[in-house]
Amino acid sequence: MAGDPDPIVYSTDGSHLRACAACGRHPCACPAPEEVVPAGTVLRLRLERQGRRGKTVTVVSDLPPDPAYFGRLVRALKTHCGVGGALTGAGMELQGDQRDRAQAYLEQLGFTVRRVGG
């Protein structure tokens, strides 16, 4: 790394194996991810059928970029609704029409939820 004040030249303790995948340094010099504040976050809730062979899917979109937080949230939401689902690039997907349950649960956590579409 050019400009690195303390580059590792040789290591027998294995510290070169613990380097961060994103920045390549140990300890990691990446900025800490921003904390998700539910009160300042507006989530969009919609129902989709297209491209799913007629199956209905509830999609929660406009998620802030914190995959670890929303990975835990989608697990809790799936448990609350009693359905399957996943965290995808488009947002959180829940099987079936779970708009009412998902909206109540997310609002209970402090998120602002807007329904999009019909």
Instruction: Name the shape in a single word.
Output: elongated
How far apart the termini lie comes to 53 Å
Largest sheet: 5 strands, mixed
Radius of gyration: 20 Å
Count, helices: 2
Number of E-state strands: 5
Task: Return the string of H and E elements.
Answer: EEHEEHE
Overall mean pLDDT: 83
Query: Which strand-content bin applies to the residues?
Result: 15-25%
Secondary structure: helix percent: 10-25%
User: What is the fold named in CATH at topology level of one domain?
Assistant: Translation Initiation Factor Eif1
CATH superfamily of one domain: SUI1-like domain
Proper CATH architecture of one domain: 2-Layer Sandwich
**Which structural category fits the helices and strands?**
alpha+beta
How are the strands of the largest sheet arranged?
Answer: 3-4-2-1-5
Task: Write a concise synopsis of the structure shown.
This protein is α+β, with helices and mostly antiparallel strands.
Features:
118 residues; alpha+beta; Translation Initiation Factor Eif1; 5-stranded mixed β-sheet; 22% helix; elongated
Write the layout of secondary structure elements.
Elements: E1 42-48, E2 57-61, H1 67-81, E3 85-87, E4 92-95, H2 99-109, E5 112-115
Parallel strand pairs: 1-5
Antiparallel strand pairs: 1-2, 2-4, 3-4
Architecture overview:
- The protein has 118 residues and is of the alpha+beta class.
- The chain has a domain at 38-115: Translation Initiation Factor Eif1.
- The chain contains two helices and five strands.
- Strands 3-4-2-1-5 form a five-stranded mixed beta sheet, covered by helices on one side.
- The protein starts with 41 loop residues before the first strand and ends with a strand.
- The mean pLDDT is 83.
